[in-house]
Specification:
mainly alpha; 0% strand
């Protein structure tokens, strides 16, 4: 083999090696780019997942707080309604008791008046009988 053939073989060998190196470098670069893309995609997925979980937790917390506030308002309204009903019933009982007391007082006064009238009538009858007997 002469010098030229050796040089051609060395050059071809270098070109093949350079071409293989470039192919491997391109493959390695593409692999790194795909891994970076997959990493960004995975990070984005998990960030989105975490944000969704946080949003759901916040929504649940707000809903729970609203329900507690509504429960508190309902309890206060029920207490007010119960107090008003108790007051109305108490006033009803007091007015019924007052009416009963007034009726008893009136009946007592009428009975005393009748007893006085009966005593006077009896006394007048006794006097009339006594005068008639004289």
């Amino acid at each position: 083999m002469d010098e030229r053939q050796k040089q051609n073989m060395n050059q071809a060998s270098e070109e093949l090696t350079d071409s293989a190196r470039q192919s491997f470098q391109m493959l390695a670069d593409r692999t790194v780019a795909l891994q970076e893309s997959n990493l960004r995609l995975t990070q984005g997925f998990f960030q989105n997942f975490v944000e969704q979980m946080q949003n759901q937790a916040e929504g649940t917390r707000e809903a729970t707080q609203n329900l507690q506030e509504q429960g508190q308002r309902q309890r206060e309204a029920f207490e007010t309604l119960s107090q008003e009903a108790t007051n109305a019933y108490s006033e009803f009982l007091n007015s019924a008791l007052s009416f009963y007391q007034e009726a008893m007082s009136t009946a007592s006064q009428v009975a005393q008046g009748n007893m006085q009238n009966a005593a006077q009538a009896t006394q007048q009858a006794v006097q009339a009988a006594s005068q008639a007997g004289q």
